[in-house]
Amino acid sequence: MRRTRALLVACAVMLAGAAGAALAQAGQDVDDETVAAQEEMAAQPQGRPPAPAPITLSDRPGASPGEALYVDKCVMCHGENGMGTGLLGRNREVALLEARDNLPAQFVIVAARQGIGNMPAIPRGEVSDAQLQAIAEYLAAGPHLEPQG
Question: Do residue 38 and residue 64 come from a single domain?
Fold first, then answer.
């Protein structure tokens, strides 16, 4: 058992050394253009891309009452970059709620009040029945946006 383990470790060290030598040798054949491209890439800031700008009512100055409530209460999850849109996109052709043409108002109300899938139930203290009715009617009258393709 010890001999097998020692043999495996020795093989791993040899492979790592061979790979390192191959990389070093390949690096010797790099032209000036490649070096310049590598330096330019190194100068670029690394990390995550910036977060998208949030959608607010100032983006939609002529919003209807239902649309304004949707932007205020729902778009943080159901906008283009929202978690709800991303999750719906796994099993819906059109995940963006405002781009859908198949959302009956009663379905929206029941889904919001009871929760559906990963979406939690939305209590009346957060969105009143009248507000939810306006949101549901806005979505049922859709599509309001072009589907993302």
Answer: no
Burial environment of residue 54 by CB neighbours within 10 A (0 to 12, 13 to 18, 19 or more): exposed
Q: Output the domain CATH number for residue 130.
A: 1.10.760.10
Identify the residue with better confidence: 45 or 94: 94
Which of 5-19, 22-36, 62-76 is predicted most confidently? Answer: 62-76
**pLDDT average, residue stretch 118-128:** 95
**Claim to verify: residue 64 and residue 119 sit in the same structural domain:** yes
pLDDT, position 52: 76
Q: Which two tokens stand for residue 20?
A: 């390192």
**Residue matched to tokens 């670029």:** 44
Query: How far apart (Å, rounded) are the C-alpha atoms in residues 30 and 41?
Result: 16
**Sole residue written with tokens 């283009």:** 80
* 92 and 68 within one domain: yes
Regarding whether 135 and 88 lie in a shared domain, the answer is yes
Half-sphere exposure of 60 (CA within 13 A, CB side): 17
Residue 19 has pLDDT above 70, yes or no: no
In whole angstroms, what is the distance from residue 51 CA to residue 18 CA?
Answer: 42
Which DSSP category does 109 fall into? Answer: H
